[in-house]
Amino acid sequence: MAETKTVHSPLVTYSFLLSILSRCPPFQNGLQGFLDICPIPTATAWKIIAYYAAFEALLQLLLPGKRVEGPISPTGIDLSTRCLLANGMLAYFVTLATYLSLWWFGIFNPAIVYDHLGEIFSALNLGSLVFCVLLYIKSLHHSGSSRNISIDFYWLYPRIGKNFDIKVFTNCRFGMMSWAVLAVAYCIKQYEENGRVANSMLVNTILMLVYVTKFSWWEAGYWNSMDIAHDRAGFYICWGCLVWVPSVYTCLGTYLVNHSVNLGSQLALSILALSILAASLLCIYINYDCNRQRQEFRRTNSKCLVWGKAPSKIMASYTTTSRETKTSLLLTSGWWGLSRHFHYLPEILAAFSGQFLFLPYFYVLFITILLFHRAKRDDDRSHPCTYEKYWKLYCKKIPYQIIPGIY
What we know:
Blueprint: H1 10-21, H2 30-37, H3 43-62, E1 66-68, E2 84-86, H4 88-104, H5 111-115, H6 117-139, H7 149-152, E3 159-160, E4 164-165, H8 166-194, H9 199-217, H10 219-222, H11 226-229, H12 235-249, H13 251-258, H14 267-299, E5 313-319, E6 325-331, H15 344-350, H16 362-382, H17 389-397
Antiparallel strand pairs: 1-2, 3-4, 5-6
Helix pairs in contact: 1-6, 1-12, 3-4, 3-6, 4-8, 4-9, 6-12, 8-9, 8-12, 8-13, 9-13, 9-14, 14-15
């Protein structure tokens, strides 16, 4: 697989978050001005991160769940002995229930998270970079290392012991869970500041929670995606999920805390708010149904119905790096008959809910570039070495990559 460059960086994260939190361009007064407003990690920030990370790690290890076989590795090795515990949905509900209970009983105020947000993200930036260096050091004694620092620092695949998968923790339990936790924190902070929650914030929070709920429900399916099955842990995955996801993916909520926009109490504007919510929920559902459709197709070995009919498919055989012959089923009907990566389109469209301003919509711009690039990476990985003639047949039958009839 060709080396892929990361599209996120600590400097971009700092600049973007400081623009929102300080409500001014971070380099307005030059480099010194940037340094003057740049938050420093504090003991409070480290404690919040440590408690949250430890809590999620314990939930990952201790909560009951179905044991799911690991995916096929990029070299074709069967990782069925590498079982993963699918308890994401339960962990999600326990996290939110605990979080809200701590607030309700006055034990912990989630608004504190927003008050120390700059310090928290500074600490996450520093801690995550150190974490990635430790992963690289571990890789030097791991058979999966390529012995190439430029690749190994970005792409590793470590575990702690037999049961703690680092990518499941960074991607699912820390990164995606923080999306929901921060959404609630922003809502509570706005309520404390203004005595009410604007309907724009409610729409944004509902959509974020619905999306994370969908992700947690589908977590076992996610483990067969490119992130888990092909991209090994390291800077791209670990730093991205530990820092980029909680900072950038939640940016609209961060922005709305101090830019309370009410979509209106008049009937027309209320209909607008509900329309935005309904359209975004529909996009999230379609994204989920795309993944569910393909997962069910593979789980039943194509012995299922797709949109009420027997699925159209291509049975592709390929040879792994270990010279083994494997078979892969390519679904060419249903959502997957519209384009090869149609599931990315509703995810991009769902990101357009809320305010149409550039700063909070940096996320929309980023996720669009990310998913288009991801689709290209997936196609490049499959062609020409993996499926050869079958891939050409697949592309002829499904010519569009993401947008049907256009691209």
